Amino acid sequence: MATITLNNPEVTVKLPEGLSEERLLGFSPFNNWLATLTRSLSLQHTNPSHPFHPDPYSLHNITIQSFDLFGRPPQQRLAFLKLIAEISNGAGETLPGSIFLRGPSVAMLVVLIPDDLTPSGNHDERFVVLTVQPRIPAGSLAFVELPAGMVDEGGSFAGTAAQEIKEELGLEIPASELLCLSDLVTTSYSNSSSSSSSSHLNEGSNEDGDEDLSDEKLPSAMYPSAGGCDEHIPIFMHERRVPRDTLKEWTGKLTGLREHGERITLKLVRMSDLWKEGARDAKCLAAVALWEGLKREKRL
Questions:
Q1: Cys-Cys link to 126, which of 3, 160, 233, 271 (CB 3.0-4.6 A)?
Q2: Confidence of residue 118 (pLDDT cuts 50, 70, 90)
Q3: Cis peptide upstream of residue 147 (ω within 30 degrees of 0)
Q4: Rounded CA separation 107/150 (Å)
Q5: Is the pTM higher than 0.85?
Q6: pLDDT tens string 3-17
Q7: Exposure of 98 by Cβ count < 10 A (0-12 exposed, 13-18 middle, 19+ buried)?
């Protein structure tokens, strides 16, 4: 196992056989995770009101235990990392640091409305497209969930969402027409927090002038398993009017990229039933919560 030393932050990283320093440092999920953690750790020192300020934690070393690659030689790229981060304070107390790095994904809430429905019509006639597909990590061959996909290296969230909608649902929607519910909520929360603060306070500061504990600059996204994984998922939405006669064509439709091992069947459910039809899917429940909250605040 080789050992390298990073400069910012200064920390040693142990690499397993077959993983080069160049490949590791070219993996955005690792770089983004380390940058975010470094900033969060720094807040302990700069903010006297931070709960860990009296005895701050430090990152001492990182051990990469294993890695997976996508593709075939010579076009392979890093896909996943499993690592241990050793984090402790002066008293020898440690924080859990077993981490699975895979990077961000996107989820899409695609709502279909019969084109003959008037604005004052039955609001229960909003339909959401779900996917039913094998999810081997869950031990399922028919997992019901919102359409979703991983963000490739260098890709954008909106662009990935548009591509996944095309591949999994067969709809071509320009990325510019997708609405990010996660961003709307963050903007709403930030505006609410700012309006409740005194006008003389600096952004990102509390009443004593210290940096706010929420100033870790985490992405505007849902973390389905923050205790073990870096994956974060912004929820995008698109509403489209379609002929009523075509609605029934969506259920049972087969989609997905066979060369990627995708075996997807589409399922159409009423928006009012989404919370129970997708009850096992964190993306689904997050989308319901965001949609209902934004509707309640008249931001949709």
A1: 271
A2: confident
A3: no
A4: 9
A5: yes
A6: 999 998 999 999 999
A7: exposed
